TrEMBL record:
One Pfam family, short name: HSP70
Keyword Signal: no
Protein known as: Heat shock protein 70
Family annotation (InterPro entries): ATPase_NBD, Heat_shock_70_CS, Hsp_70_fam
Protein's UniProt keywords contain Magnesium: no
Keywords per UniProt: ATP-binding, Chaperone, Nucleotide-binding, Stress response
Family: Belongs to the heat shock protein 70 family.
Gene Ontology terms, MF aspect: ATP binding; ATP-dependent protein folding chaperone
SUPFAM superfamilies associated with the record: Actin-like ATPase domain (SSF53067)
Length: 530
């Protein structure tokens, strides 16, 4: 059986394909999923670590049921997905004598979720994970490593907005804009669904098993072609933090996990009504506090924190990419809203500033992504391009600082039909090796830093125009791409390096010694999923 997992910052959704009804359905895990009348059975992305060495954790709704989410213990984790693959500033918590990383917490969470599936019991043979469009390879690399520890035959990955377009089951050959706005990220993707004859369904393969999955080669498959993408580290958890800061300033209360939880509930109230109120009792001070807010004041808090300006910037980037391909605003046939944050009336009003209300769909905010991911095994081929580019680091003498020279630009379709060639020589006499530092280049905009504010994990834009870079091989033993024998000397070309991206989106290099005609590295993966 194939299971799709939409691992979110605030909530996680699991879907499976029902062979009887021939329809996708949400999977409910006992004690872990929320039982709600308004929403499908979501799994809160919460972890409480009871024992690190024994990998004993409590996850999902059980964390709330036991009251672990309203205390200040360092064993409680929320929004941990935002710290995976990021350079977190500040001290990571130490539990049971060990420093605990967000990668560890995320792995424990997913392992517990998959174990819960197997207890239902459901035979999990194939998994499909959805990922944010703006995720760097460090996050995808981590996800691949997690998958190796799971007893699952095959694991694939698909961008969340593309999955959402498939989940809404839109008409073929229609251009769609997906606005995926969850707890941690805003992702916008322009997608076109076509009908094509495909030999087999494609996805980003993380792990192959011995069994074969998918449909036979004669089946007609739909292609989800990604035309434009933009992402932002902005989500519902940021709004929760802004509300907490507002009440700390206006009422003088202390920041705590309890206040954050109440702020989240207040935000949900304001999505449904004009006024919201939450009351809590402080066990230490024996005082009660009432948090009240109107929708107008709520939207002013959003405005003061640059919320709508960030939305406009992301929309502008997507529309500019579309225009370069000859696609105008009027060519977009439908706008699909997914994620909990799209339920905020101000967000829906913002979308209507760009598009007619008749084009906007919002009836599947939670389930569209995981259900759409299941289409990968129903005869859908995904064709995509690189959201980030790749480059090499060099020393900029004018700025007296490191700069980055792009080798493979963002927007490049993959797999690449031809490699990029670079010829290098030695820079000093008797040089034993040649080193290169390779990086994944993000958008040229204000950067993002991840840091702790008390027990809150915060993402914040860094002022100034700069290129966000995720280093790929800047570690001991990882920078050297060529050992020279005989030793190298300046004055001649010594090595030729070929760079390309394969069908699984790994950056690979081949290095040839031009003096000896020897291949020093052959199709070596710079970012390799172990």
């Amino acid at each position: 059986m194939t299971i799709a997992i939409d691992f979110g910052t605030s909530n996680t959704v699991i879907s499976r394909w029902n062979q009887t009804t021939k329809q996708p359905e949400i999977v409910k895990l006992p004690n872990i999923s929320i039982l709600s009348v308004e929403n499908p059975p979501l799994i809160p992305s919460l972890v409480y670590v009871e024992n690190v060495a024994e990998k004993k954790v409590v996850v999902g709704q059980q964390v709330r049921d036991k009251g672990y989410d309203v205390n200040t213990e360092s064993r409680f984790f929320r929004n941990f997905k935002r710290g995976i693959g990021a350079n977190v500033q500040g001290f990571l918590p130490e539990l049971d004598g060990q420093i605990v990383s967000f990668e560890q917490v995320g792995k424990l969470f997913l392992e517990e979720v998959v174990a819960g599936l197997q207890k239902v019991p459901l035979p999990v043979e194939s998994l499909i994970f959805t990922v944010p469009v703006d995720s760097f390879e460090a996050y995808r690399n981590w996800l691949g490593e997690v998958c190796q520890s799971l007893e699952v035959e095959q694991v694939r990955m698909i961008d969340e907005p593309t999955a959402a377009a498939l989940g809404y089951g839109m008409a073929d050959a229609e251009i769609l804009l997906v606005v995926d706005f969850g707890g941690g990220t805003l992702d916008l993707s322009l997608v076109r669904l076509d009908n094509v004859m495909a030999k087999q369904p494609l996805g980003y393969i993380l792990k192959w098993g011995k069994k074969s999955y998918g449909n036979n080669s004669s089946q007609k498959a739909r292609t989800a072609r990604v035309l434009a993408k933009a992402g932002e580290n902005l989500g519902g958890s940021d709004i929760d933090n802004w509300l907490v800061d507002y009440f700390v300033k206006s009422q003088g209360i202390e920041k705590s996990s309890l206040v954050t939880r109440l702020a989240e509930k207040l935000k949900i109230q304001l999505s449904l009504q004009q006024e919201g109120t939450e009351v809590f009792f402080d066990d230490e001070s024996l005082e009660s506090y009432e948090l009240g807010l109107g929708r107008d004041a709520f939207e002013e808090i959003l405005r003061e924190n640059g919320f709508f300006a960030s939305l406009d910037q992301s929309m502008s980037r997507v529309l500019q990419q579309a225009k370069r391909q000859g696609i105008e605003l009027s060519d977009i046939g439908a706008v699909l809203l997914v994620g909990g944050t799209v339920q905020i009336p101000a967000v829906q009003r913002w979308v209507r500033e760009y598009f007619d209300a008749g084009k906007i769909r919002c009836e599947k905010p939670f389930e569209a992504i995981s259900q759409g991911a299941l289409q990968l095994v129903q005869g859908v081929e995904v064709k995509d391009f690189l959201y980030h580019g790749y480059g090499i680091r060099y020393w900029d003498r004018k700025k007296n600082a490191h700069g980055w020279h792009p080798l493979i630009k963002s927007g490049q379709p993959y797999p690449m039909s031809s490699p990029v060639e670079l010829v290098l020589g030695a820079s000093m006499n008797s040089q034993p090796s040649i080193e290169l530092v390779l990086g994944e280049l993000g958008a040229e905009s204000a950067g993002t830093e991840v840091f702790f504010d008390g027990d809150r994990l915060i993402t914040r834009k860094v002022s100034g125009e700069q290129t966000a870079v995720q280093l790929l091989n800047d570690r001991e033993g990882g920078r050297s791409i060529a050992q020279l024998s005989p030793l190298g000397n300046p004055g001649r070309d010594r090595i030729k390096v070929l760079f390309w991206v394969d069908e699984s989106r790994f950056l690979r290099i081949t290095v040839e010694d031009l003096l000896t005609n020897e291949i020093l590295l052959n199709e070596q993966a710079v970012v390799q999923l172990s």
